[in-house]
Amino acid sequence: xxxxxxxxxxxxxxxxxxxxxxxxxxxxxxxxxxxxxxxxxxxxxxxxxxxxxxxxxxxxxxxxxxxxxxxxxxxxxxxxxxxxxxxxxxxxxxxxxxxxxxxxxxxxxxxxxxxxxxxxxxxxxxxxxxxxxxxxxxxxxxxxxxxxxxxxxxxxxxxxxxxxxxxxxxxxxxxxxxxxxxxxxxxxxxxxxxxxxxxxxxxxxxxx
Length: 208
Hints:
Layout: E1 6-10, H1 14-25, E2 34-38, H2 41-51, E3 55-59, H3 66-76, E4 83-87, H4 95-100, E5 103-108, H5 113-124, E6 129-130, H6 132-140, H7 144-149, H8 154-164, H9 169-176, H10 180-194, H11 199-206
Parallel strand pairs: 1-2, 1-3, 3-4, 4-5, 5-6
Helix pairs in contact: 8-10, 9-10
């Protein structure tokens, strides 16, 4: 990493962008970075074209389309900028997107600042980086084709990720800003779709 290293943060939420900027700006290893921000695909395209960043830090939102559009744009224009994707919750990797674009890292947003900095160092040195939980979940959760066949929604995928981490309905509700009752309804729907009767049976099915 050099004094001329340029990094682009892409996320629709200002609070996420500000938090990431704060962490990078206050770390000795990245304080010298030129950091750019984009809240949507248009701003991301403009920044990529104008600033030619060395790395894109892409915060993935389950409810947004910006990320999928950015993946498509990176593929269409053969942009070779390495990308680190930050997830809200553990979920399978996207091997088809990794092959089609230049995704080099997958990490969770609840990691510590040291691991975030380490992932950036690793990717800038040309090495892929995947946080432990992402690696674990990617090995065990069902492939995307099966999730589609079972009509598992994105919200249900979020909750499945937390179930894998053995969080209670109350803990999940606090992380997703939902009521406990709503989370329990989602859990029941997930059990029905996987045709199991308990959370423990669901976890066994997912980890087979």
